[in-house]
């Protein structure tokens, strides 16, 4: 098994978790999501449509990490015959709303200052060819580490799909796991089945093993590394279009102010106020979930929709982001 991992950069492990363990994990995660959505005063469906990824400190991730991390570590150390150190973990979910494919990328390039050697991705649902299976390029972990691919930019047009004869999609059953090198080029297919697909992912460092040179992250025009900050800047500077002097506003107050403006100025500058207001409300949910639940928007859908319904139109007027 180790030979396969070193040769291909990934390894499929069948039945790492039993059916009863998977069921318990899903119950814990879903109960935590309901609790989180109730905390924000929104439906579970609206909450999931704005998030999809929860990091190490999230109560949603912690709900299963206490149950699984020691078991995973013991399994991996026996497999690798090496001591390993836990680095971080995520719960990831694709839903009927979050269906976009994830373009190919190398995980290590997103953590140049705090890297890890490999991940273990355990599926909590059956994953067929139509439910966003993980895609990998066998052997690609032997290549140099490239600058982190910002596949939300430019303006959420994917320019990073990779065609390679060694690419394969990995279908798994619930409880199966995929171990893969952090340098391996991988992504996922579109969730055409439009069913929830939960996974728990842990990241690990192998003690005594060096890291390759990792390029610095280079933010682009309006992508995953700066779209949150630029959204706030566009909204603040665009207040001048209504002779409103920008004040020191927190993110929620700024969004609420724009909802008031769009309600009073329907179809200003070609903006569909109904759609833009809906997208602003989703951004507000995401911001709160980020602050309270260590959540993120897995596919950029919230920012993508808001860019097209509101921000791009405002930006053409104030020319903050270069197009």
From TrEMBL:
Its cofactor is Fe(2+). Keywords: Dioxygenase, Oxidoreductase. The keyword Oxidoreductase applies. It comes from the Bacteria. GO terms for molecular function: 2-oxoglutarate-dependent dioxygenase activity; iron ion binding. Pfam families: PhyH. InterPro entries: Phytyl_CoA_dOase-like. The keyword Oxidoreductase applies. PANTHER family: ECTOINE DIOXYGENASE, PHYTANOYL-COA DIOXYGENASE DOMAIN CONTAINING 1. This is Phytanoyl-CoA dioxygenase.
């Amino acid at each position: 098994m180790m030979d396969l991992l070193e040769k291909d950069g990934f390894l499929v492990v069948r039945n790492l978790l039993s059916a009863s363990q998977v069921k318990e994990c899903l119950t814990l995660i879903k109960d935590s999501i309901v609790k989180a959505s109730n905390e924000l005063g929104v439906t579970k469906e609206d909450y999931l449509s704005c998030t999809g990824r929860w990091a190490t400190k999230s109560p949603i991730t912690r709900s299963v990490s206490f149950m699984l991390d020691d078991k995973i570590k013991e399994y991996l150390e026996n497999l690798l015959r090496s001591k390993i150190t836990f680095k971080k973990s995520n719960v990831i979910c694709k839903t009927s709303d979050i269906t976009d494919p994830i373009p190919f990328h190398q995980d290590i390039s997103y953590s140049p200052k705090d890297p890890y050697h490999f991940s273990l991705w355990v599926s909590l649902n059956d994953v067929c060819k139509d439910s966003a299976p993980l895609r990998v390029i066998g052997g690609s972990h032997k290549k140099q580490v490239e600058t982190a691919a910002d596949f939300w930019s430019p303006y959420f047009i994917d320019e990073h799909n990779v065609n390679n004869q060694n690419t394969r999609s990995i279908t798994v059953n619930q409880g199966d796991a995929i171990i893969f090198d952090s340098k391996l080029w991988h992504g996922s297919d579109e969730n055409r089945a439009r069913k929830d697909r939960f996974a728990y992912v842990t990241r690990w460092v192998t003690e005594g093993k060096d890291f390759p040179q990792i390029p610095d992250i280079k933010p682009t025009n309006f992508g995953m590394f700066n779209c949150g900050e630029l959204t706030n800047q566009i909204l603040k500077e665009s207040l001048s279009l209504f002779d409103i002097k920008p004040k020191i506003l927190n993110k929620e107050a700024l969004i609420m102010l724009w909802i008031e403006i769009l309600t009073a100025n329907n179809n200003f500058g070609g903006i569909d106020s109904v759609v833009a207001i809906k997208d602003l409300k989703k951004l507000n949910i995401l911001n709160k979930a980020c602050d309270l639940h260590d959540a993120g928007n897995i596919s950029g859908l919230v920012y993508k929709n808001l860019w097209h319904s509101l921000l791009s139109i405002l930006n053409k007027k104030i020319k903050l982001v270069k197009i």
